[in-house]
C-alpha cells in the first residue's frame, strides 16, 4: 500500500510511459489550427441522393407487364416507319393488277408466299411472253368451253376427265361447278357429254392458273418451244412475278392489306399524338389559370359550361361535315372540345393544393405566379397528366374510327385504321373477314398498351410510391 500511494502521488508525467510522453510533447510543440467551415459540406449532413425522375423510372421498370407492352408499342411505332423501306413491299395505295390480264388482284387470302401451286418435272405449260426475262407467264389452259358445249369423254376420272373437242384433247374438271351431263354408265367411254357452265380445257390434270389468270415461273425451269414449254424440274408457280407475299391478303381493289394496315397505323398514331399534345397543353394552361387565378374562375367556369354542354359527338360530326375531310379537319374537330376534360381535372387538383403552406410561403416571399405554377403546382400533377395523355391517344384513334364509320372521316385514298375497320366490318360474315381482323388486332394492341402503360407510369410518378 505504501508503494501504491507513493506512485499515485507522483506527477502525471512520471506515470506515463516513455512513448506516450514523447507523443504528447510533440503535439504540444505543433501549432493549433482552426477548423474551416464550408456551407456546401455542411449541407452534406442532410444530403440524400433521391431523384424524383430517377425514382419514377425505377418504379416503372419494376412493372414487367407495362415494360413489355411499352417495348411492343415502341417496336410497333418504329415498324410503321421502317416497313415502307423493307425490300419487296408494295405501296399502300397501289392497285395491283395482273401483269398479263390487267385484272385487279382482288380479295387474295393472307399467305406467307406467292406460290399458288407446284408442278413436277415434265409438266406441259403454255407460255405467254412477259417483259422480264427472268420470269415467264404460264398456264395450262388450252381452250375455254362455253356453257352446254358438247365434247367427247375419252377417259373418265374422279377429279379430271380426259376429253376431246374439235380435234383438240385435254382435261376438264369433274366437280360441282362443272356439272358434267353424263350417261348412266359413265365408265364406258367414249361418249358425248356437256356442262351447264363455262369450263376450261387443260393440257394436264391440274389447274395451273390463279382464278383463270396466268401464273409465273422462273424461266430457268422451262424448256420452251414457241408458245409451249415443258418444265425441266419441279418448280413453283406464283401468282405474280415476285416473291413478295400478301401477308395480310388484298382488299377488293387489289391493294396490299399489309401495307395498308401499317400506313393506316402510322396515320392514326400521328392523329392520336397530335391531338393528345394539343389537348394536354390547352387543358393544362386553362386548368392551371382556372384553378389558381381566382379572378378568372367565374369566366372560365362559364366557358366550360357552354363547351361541355354541347355533345362531343355532335361537334365532331358538324365540323367533319362542314369542312373538307382530311387529317387537319379531324385534329381540329377533336381538339375543339377535347381539352375541356383535362382543364376541369387540372382545375380541381389546383384548388386542392392552391393554399397549402408552401404556396402561401412562396407568395409571401414575392415569388412570381409563373414560378409558383411551374415549380410548386405542376410537378404535383405529373402522374395524372401522364395518365390522361396516355388515354387521350387511343381515345383520339377511337374517335377517328367512329367518324369514319359514319362516313365523315378521312377520304378513302388516305389509309387509316378507321377506314380499314369501316371497310372490313362490311365483310365480317364473308370469307374476306380477314380485312377486319388485322386492323382490329393492331388497334386493340395500341389501345390496351396505352391504357396499361399510362396507369403504370402514373403509379410510378406518384411520390407516395417512391422508396
Structural class: alpha+beta
Q: What form results from the Cα inertia axes?
A: elongated
Strand order, sheet with most strands: 10-11-3-2-13-12
> On the 0-100 scale, what is the average pLDDT?
82
Count the DSSP helices. 15
Number of strands: 14
Radius of gyration: 40 Å
Q: Encode the helix/strand succession as letters.
A: HHHHHHEEEEEEEEEEEEEEHHHHHHHHH
Low-confidence stretches are: 1-10
Q: What is the helix fraction of residues, given as a range?
A: 40-55%
Strand content bin: 5-15%
Notes on the structure:
The protein has 467 residues and is of the alpha+beta class. It is built from 15 helices and 14 strands. The chain has helices at 2-8, 12-15, 18-29, 39-43, 52-61, 64-82, 257-292, 297-308, 312-322, 327-353, 357-364, 369-377, 382-405, 417-425, 434-461; strands at 115-119, 124-128, 135-139, 141-145, 150-155, 160-165, 168-173, 191-194, 199-202, 209-210, 213-218, 222-225, 228-231, 235-238. The chain has a six-stranded antiparallel β-sheet, with no helix packed on it. A four-stranded antiparallel β-sheet has the order 7-6-5-8, with no helix packed on it. A hairpin with a 2-residue loop joins strand 12 and strand 13 (228-231). Helix 9 runs antiparallel to helix 10 (327-353) and helix 13 packs across helix 14 (417-425). The radius of gyration is 40 Å and the shape is elongated. The two termini are 65 Å apart. The model is unreliable at 1-10 (pLDDT under 50).
